[in-house]
Design a protein that fits this description.
The chain has 284 residues and is α/β, with parallel strands linked by helices. 35% of the residues lie in helices and 23% in strands.
């Protein structure tokens, strides 16, 4: 659903124009799918507007949102349902994959230059990493290890790629596998290169909203000979609770071409190796 289908209300949230609803009569599963698409497209929506949009009672919408909240897809709070990240919750992958697509594509193409046929690579639960995963078949044969369902889906159809899916408990909020089983599997492996991302950078340290994710990322970091951080410029303005890995510990931080000079100069002064991705001219 395009944001052209929305109008902006006085409080800055997006809502559907009156008279444009075609959602009456949906069954519960259809309504859940439509609610997800609607909120993910908008970012945040008032619950009262969902009642109007789907022509159901407030009680029905709250039941629907409780289910989607429990699955980690959307979050309900103070009359608003959101797919946006907060200090305590990372945005759902369905929302994240729609954000800064051009920047993520730039970063993925730059990271792809660091990959050589025959290597063993590890990818974390990063939507930027999915862009890289989609390029990897061009450098078969490769072994690719990941805990992220998005990357698994992108790579599973290529016979020249040895795909290792890290098992463990599936976390719906990230569509990824985590927990003690996953950590044990990671620790049993040694890879040539890790490509990971992070929701937030504060004082040039990776931060994440979820402690479980920081433990997985640290285990991946420890298992790799080379470590690369994929970082779009928006991560410098995000906030999260749990500190993880300092940027200076990575072999390189790969950023998009829109990253400000201020950030580039500061990281350089700290001895952080930064690779600025080339702009994707065909997207301009």
């Amino acid at each position: 659903m395009s944001q052209d289908a929305f109008v902006t209300s006085n409080d800055g949230l997006l809502k559907a124009p009156s008279g444009k609803s075609a959602t009456k009569g949906l069954n519960q599963n259809q309504r859940h799918d439509s609610i997800i698409e609607y909120v993910v497209s908008a970012g945040s929506v008032r619950i009262e507007d969902l009642c109007e949009k789907f022509e159901v009672s407030t009680m029905t919408i709250h039941r629907d949102l409780d289910v989607l909240d429990s699955r980690g897809i959307l979050r309900k709070s103070r009359g608003v349902v959101t797919a946006l990240a907060t200090n305590l919750f990372e945005a759902n992958p369905e929302y994240r994959k729609r954000q800064k697509v051009a920047e993520k594509t730039e970063i993925a193409h730059e990271a792809f230059k660091l990959v050589e046929p025959g290597q063993a690579l590890m990818l974390d639960d990063s939507t930027t990493g999915v862009h890289l995963a989609e390029l990897l078949p061009q450098k078969q044969p490769l072994t690719v290890i990941t805990n992220f369902q998005g990357s698994i889906d992108a790579l599973s159809k290529y016979p020249g790629l040895a795909l290792i899916s890290l098992g463990g408990q599936h976390y719906q909020w990230s569509n990824a596998f985590m927990g003690s089983i996953t950590i044990a599997a990671i620790k049993s492996l040694r890879v040539d290169s890790l490509f990971m991302s992070t929701p937030s950078v504060i004082d040039d340290i990776c931060f994440h909203q979820h402690h479980d994710a920081t433990i997985i990322k640290q285990a991946m970091f420890d298992s790799a000979e080379k470590r690369y951080l994929l970082l779009d410029h928006g991560k410098f303005s995000q906030h999260a609770l749990h500190s993880n890995i300092p940027l200076k510990e990575f072999d390189a931080v790969i950023v998009d071409s829109k990253t400000s000079t201020e950030h580039l100069e500061r990281m350089s002064e700290k001895g952080i190796r930064v690779i600025v991705a080339e702009p994707m001219l065909h997207q301009i």
